[in-house]
Amino acid sequence: MSEPHLRLTDVHRQYGTGETSIRVLEKANLSVSSGELVAIVAPSGAGKSTLLHLSGLLERPQSGEIEITGTKTFHLNERGRTLLRRHTIGYVYQFHHLLPEFSALENVSIPQLIAGKRQADANRRSLELLELLGIGNRASHRPAELSGGEQQRVAIARAAANHPQVILADEPTGNLDPATSDLVFSALRELIRGEGAAGLIATHNHDLARRADRIVTIRDGLVSDLVL
Ligand code: ADP
């Protein structure tokens, strides 16, 4: 079997030191393969965002290793982490954070232009992604002219724009009604499978979590499998 795209080994993360410190992850282990979607379901405060931030190289663990497509990151400097993050990781937030003055197409093209792609190639890729997510006909609209579900699908397209090997999403359907949540989750799942990315999604929605390939939870600082 091929190397997992995302692997956490014995990850320890605590906030603060001494008596007031909070140990969020004690010895967390998790692997996510290419094309696999893993849902994280755990109570508020259990460490879901921490796990996603660590996986996205936005935070550092005190100890343990986080590998992105086999590249060990513990000893990387900030520059190395930034470059790896830019080229291999796509992040979807609960609030879409689209740039309001740009169209859907431009929002998806901008990260590609930053990565050095030519405008025509970036636009082609953006349109392909928007069509894949069922919103090709909304490409020229600005975020304010789109529904919540459409905005979130643009945010998913933007996260996938540079062909990331890892796609992370923190409550991506948290603000959407059930029918739209379903649509957005399906779009994300198809994209992860189609692109062969490793997907890790935090969600409170058990119905959606059951449609992932695997469900994990965080308990006593450990990541363990969960059956819902
Ligand atoms: P979840 O996403 O599951 O709600 P978080 O990962 O946000 O949980 O938080 C896990 C625990 O770590 C919580 O107790 C939270 O208060 C604490 N925590 C998170 N970030 C910080 C921080 N920057 N400083 C101190 N404590 C933090």
SSE topology sketch:
Layout lengths: L5 E10 L6 E11 L4 E4 L7 H8 L7 E6 L2 E2 L5 H11 E4 L11 H11 L4 H14 L15 H13 L5 E5 L7 H18 L2 E5 L3 H4 L4 E6 L2 E4 L3
Parallel strand pairs: 3-8, 3-9, 6-7, 7-8
Antiparallel strand pairs: 1-2, 1-4, 4-5, 9-10
Helix pairs in contact: 3-4, 3-5, 5-6
Can you characterise this structure?
By secondary structure, the chain is an alpha/beta fold. It has a single domain, classed as P-loop containing nucleotide triphosphate hydrolases (Rossmann fold, 3-Layer(aba) Sandwich). Helix content is 35%, strand content 25%. It has a six-stranded mixed β-sheet with strand order 6-7-8-3-9-10, sandwiched between helices. Helix 3 packs across helix 4 (119-132) and helix 3 (104-114) runs parallel beside helix 5 (148-160). The longest helix has 18 residues, at 178-195. The two termini are 27 Å apart. Bound molecules: adenosine-5'-diphosphate. Adenosine-5'-diphosphate is lined by residues 15, 22, 24, 42, 44-50. Adenosine-5'-diphosphate binds at residues 15, 22, 24, 42, 44-50.
